[in-house]
Amino acid sequence: MSNVRRTVAKSELLERPSKEQVALLPPFPGLSLKQIVVLRSPAQLEDAYRAIEEERFVGFDTETKPTFTKGAEAVGPHVIQFALRSRAFIVQLGKQPPLPFLRSIIESQEIVKIGFGLKSDRGSLFRSLGINVGAAVELTETLRALRYKHALGAKAAVAIVLGQRLQKSKSVTTSNWAAPTFKPNQLLYAANDAYAALCVFRALRSPYAPAGDPTPNPSIERTSQRPLRALCAAAHVER
């Protein structure tokens, strides 16, 4: 590619919404506390597996207790989240994580995990639990088709695709994810991180997503170089 063509190509790349622009958007509604289940009993695990297996497409994320000592390596994850269309399941790993349940979902080639930054999750899950991630869609890669200058994380994706503001408090992000019990704001944060990924995926009208999903933010059509329906052709399910 010539220098001129390279310059033109770079100039066509779009900037992510600024903090000021995102602040003006309506809030991402998210799931409420009543829609979040912390899985503890065998019966809860069985019910959660049946619900996830039935829907097949699940928002997926993990949380790790942060370290504040220079040079210290974060060891996790400490929490795993699964989100469906109307509820989310939180798994606190602790000393005796429910490995059969987690493997049956995370390693499945039929249940598709949807998320942002799954590469780091793959590594930490294998190191900590010996679990490999099966079928998955990495939204960061999918959204590159929108031709933004920088990779889009959850906040930017929710703003661009849904036209909404995803609240991600730093104080909650850096809270103790290894605690035996969570505060309400931790539950909401964890559940809606995974839920936001699922909402973005469905709003993109992926060929994998069932019909009747949310209508995406119309402004995305004006910023994309390709029709919205073509975006998730790149969202192939990694297996």
Radius of gyration, CA atoms, in whole angstroms: 18 Å
Per the principal axes of the C-alpha atoms, what is the gross shape? globular
Oligomer: single chain
Overall residue-averaged pLDDT value: 82
What is the makeup of the main sheet?
Answer: 6 strands, mixed
Q: Total number of helical segments?
A: 11
Please render the helix and strand layout as text.
Layout: H1 3-11, H2 19-23, E1 36-38, H3 42-55, E2 57-63, E3 79-83, E4 88-92, H4 99-106, E5 112-115, H5 118-129, E6 136-138, H6 139-142, H7 154-162, H8 170-173, H9 184-203, H10 219-223, H11 228-231
Parallel strand pairs: 1-4, 2-5, 5-6
Antiparallel strand pairs: 2-3, 3-4
Helix pairs in contact: 7-9
